[in-house]
Write a structure and sequence with these properties.
Layout: E1 7-14, H1 18-38, E2 40-48, E3 65-66, H2 69-74, E4 80-83, H3 91-100, E5 105-107, H4 110-127, E6 131-132, H5 144-150, E7 156-162, H6 165-177, H7 181-190, H8 199-202, H9 205-219, E8 229-230, H10 238-246, E9 249-261, E10 267-279, E11 291-298, E12 302-309, H11 313-333, E13 346-347, E14 354-364, H12 369-379, E15 384-390, E16 395-402, E17 405-406, H13 407-418, E18 423-432
Parallel strand pairs: 1-2, 1-4, 2-3, 4-5, 5-6, 8-10, 10-13, 10-18
Antiparallel strand pairs: 7-9, 7-11, 9-10, 11-12, 14-16, 14-17, 14-18, 15-16
Helix pairs in contact: 1-11, 3-4, 4-9, 6-7, 12-13
Length: about 425
């Protein structure tokens, strides 16, 4: 069988950190295999960096490096642009300029997509070229393409996942080794999993940006980071993890996007990030260390889970590389794969969200207290699924898991418990994957 004649594809890369350098290496290593399988002869022809004197350790000649990112974008000899520089600007304008000039773009920039995704999707559609971003969510895990293509006609109801490797590593260390939150965070920083300022990870903002991108793609809706409710993991203790274990659960930071029906019969979407009790028999419970997983639920497909490495230069570069091959192939064929129009939908406020809950309450250990506490739950339409008491003597800790309840009703319950004389304090309050 004769080999197909290869089409030269010259690639411009914006940024050469861990992901950019790993991508350039992958292109070098796999160029012949890609040419044999696809007929695309890929070449990294330009790499924009801040400082050309730094050795990037990539198999590219020195003359491909430049500090002029705009010149890479406007170079008529460059066919495809890869954006792995991060941040909002100048990445946003560079991508818009590339699309306007008819160049497909591959990006790993979740922050940019979450904030300006619709603008970029429309620009790509108007130019008739690709904007692909598999690496923007969950690293090497293929989830964007299935949502765009395989599941485009699926009536999806919920997508939830572990999409931040840093927090999953921290919670895994706390669970498996009894490490405190502070020590687990310090270990994550030492290993390079967490930044010196870990706020974006541990407070849920990184996962929230990814959740916004997932929700927009899965539901065809305009979702931005401001629409996402956030709670981080800094308040989770080893005692919480041990209490969850005794009740058959582990604790994970989950990003959740759900589509439901509003009171007036319209579509509403809720998107949130928070620590969550996950039953040990749920597939997400087995996702540990820096791995990620995305669990998809739909009316026809049932349940699917996508699992793999959610971070790291080479795994993330693998997702970028796959998009590069796809974009180059579509460019040769003369068409792109548009996202489609995003619609305005009602974003459900957190008070309207339904979830099961775990909570711990410190109380006086005397007759009648449990019935008083149970009456507060019942008075606010929150049904108790399970309860255990820990400790004997002057005080005890009551641990509850509820059935599904509205967030607003749960908050009213907490206020009511706080008014009971026998309640000394209310401890952790965490959501639970529902009934």
């Amino acid at each position: 069988m004769e080999r197909m004649e290869a089409t030269d594809v010259r690639v411009g890369v914006l940024g050469c950190g861990n992901v950019g350098a790993a991508l350039a290496t992958l292109v070098h290593e796999q160029s012949q295999a890609v040419a044999d399988r696809t007929g695309l002869a890929l070449e990294v022809a330009a790499i924009a960096v801040r400082d050309t004197s730094v050795d990037r350790g990539v198999p590219c000649p020195s003359d491909v490096f430049t500090t002029d990112a705009a010149a890479v974008v406007t170079d008529p000899g460059i066919d495809v642009i890869i954006e792995v520089m991060g941040g909002i600007e100048p990445a946003r304008q560079l991508i818009l300029d590339a699309l306007a000039s008819g160049k497909p773009v591959v990006t790993a920039n979740k922050e940019l997509l979450a904030a300006h995704g619709e603008e970029l999707y429309l620009a790509a559609a108007e130019a008739g070229v690709d904007l692909l971003f598999e690496a923007a969510v969950a690293g090497a895990i293929p989830i964007m393409r299935p949502l765009r293509e395989s599941l485009a006609g699926e009536p999806l109801t919920r997508i939830m996942g572990i999409v931040n490797g840093t927090t999953n590593f921290i919670l895994s260390r706390m669970s498996d080794h009894g490490t405190s939150y502070a020590d687990a965070l310090s270990e994550a920083q030492d290993l390079g999993y967490a930044e010196s300022d870990p706020t974006a990870d541990v407070d849920g903002f990184d996962a929230g940006a990814k959740a916004a991108v997932i929700a927009s793609l899965a539901f065809g809706a305009r979702v931005v980071p401001a629409d996402v409710y956030h709670e981080g993991i800094s308040g989770v203790t080893v005692d919480d993890i041990e209490a969850a274990r005794t009740m058959g659960h582990c604790i994970k930071l989950l990003a959740v996007a759900e589509r439901g029906t509003s009171a007036d019969g319209g579509v509403e979407i809720g998107v949130r990030v928070h620590p969550t009790l996950v039953p040990f028999d749920h597939p997400l419970a087995a996702v540990n260390d820096s791995f990620n997983a995305v669990f998809v639920e739909g009316g026809a497909v049932g349940e699917l889970m996508f699992y793999g490495r959610g971070a790291g230069g080479r795994p993330t570069a693998s997702a970028v590389f796959g998009d590069l091959i796809d974009a180059a192939g579509n460019l040769r064929r003369g068409h792109g794969a548009p996202i489609g129009a995003l619609s305005d939908v009602r974003m459900a406020p957190i008070g309207d969200i339904e979830s099961a809950y775990y909570l711990s309450v410190e109380v006086d250990d005397r007759p009648g207290v449990l019935s008083d506490v149970a009456a507060v739950f019942g008075g606010h339409d929150v049904s108790i699924r399970s309860m255990e008491q820990v400790g004997l003597g002057a005080e005890a800790q009551l641990r509850f898991i509820t059935h599904l309840a509205r967030e607003s009703d749960l908050q009213a319950t907490l206020r009511g418990l706080g008014e009971l004389a026998a309640v000394r304090s209310i401890g952790s309050v965490l959501r639970v994957i529902g009934d």
